[in-house]
Structures are given as C-alpha cells and as structure tokens.
Design brief:
The chain is mainly beta. It has one domain (23-194): Galactose-binding domain-like (Jelly Rolls). It has one helix at 2-19, and strands spanning 56-61, 70-73, 83-89, 92-97, 100-101, 106-116, 124-132, 137-145, 152-158, 165-174, 177-194. 27% of the residues are buried.
Length: 198
Amino acid sequence: MRLWFGLIGLAFVLGSCFFGSSLIMTDADIGDSINLVLNPSFNPYSESGKDALKGWDIHVEPRDPNFDKIIVDPLEALEGKTSLRISASEHDVMLLSSPFKVRRYGAYYCRISAKTDSPQAPQLTFRMITFKENGKITNRFKKKFTPGEDWTKATISAGFLKPGVNFGRIAILIPPFAEGSIWLDDAGSWEVHGFNID
C-alpha cells in the first residue's frame, strides 16, 4: 500500500515537471478587477458605419462587403441592454476585441456567453491571444463550446505568458451554420492574479 501511495506521489511530482502548472479561475476571482475588454455588452455606439460596434473588429470569410447577418439586438441580453446577433450564413465569422494591455506575470480570466435558437448549433471557438508590441503572437489559449437555448458561458484561464508580451485580444469564431441565430453577450478579460515584477 505504501508503494502505491509513493508511486502516486511520484507521478504528481513528475507530472508537474513535464506538464507545468495549470490555472483554473472563476467569476469569483474577478473581485474588483477592471474588465479590460472595451464594450463587453456589444452596445451600439452609432447607427451605422465603422464605429457602430466600438471595441470589436468583424472578419468574414469568404469576404463579402454586403454581409448583413450581424446586428446589435435590443431584445435579447444577458448583461446590459443589448447582445450581438449573428444569423445563419455560409460564412466564417470572427469577432476580435480591441487590444488590451497584459503583463507577463499576470493571470487572466476571460469569459463570453452565447445562446442560440438553431436546431443544429455549431461549435464556437473562444480564444485569448497575446502579442508582443510588434504584433508577433506569444501565447494562444482556446476553449470550444456549443451554445444551447439558454445562455452558455465559456471561460479561459490564461497565465504563464512568454517574455516580451505586451497586449492581448479575445476572439470568438462562429463557423457556418444553416438555420437560426446565435447571440453573444457578457464578454470580458480581467487580470485576477499577478506578481508586481514588471
């Protein structure tokens, strides 16, 4: 029996050497931290034009200058008064937040919520990506999830950032789907732990 416990203990020690530590954070860790994401509730800043969805870049593939499947929806909201509605299409849609400052020794909790009325909901990919000042990617974190009829939350715990890191962005990828809509709301990234080294 002692040998068995000894082997388990050795496995934990060796596992931490080879696989590194993992971070797991929750909403409870946010505390008084400031949400680093601009416009987390997808509020409209103007009626039309490039400033309509301030804080977010929209990328559609294949490119379509007449793409009209994304609207700010005042009838559905988890947080605030609006959400972002993406209707079914044959396009890949990626929403990318404006850059926000990150530190190498910071630990970050990221969140997005989604719901759908699609009978065959696609799997969404939620990412946090960090960059050097010159735009070179340093770290990638991702979570795949499938929204349901009720709001479904996806979270990422990100830390152990590489040297030279300067800023981060969160991204949500919606693949093509045939019917219905997907709503997004309550996005965010918070520095919830960290060392005052840099």
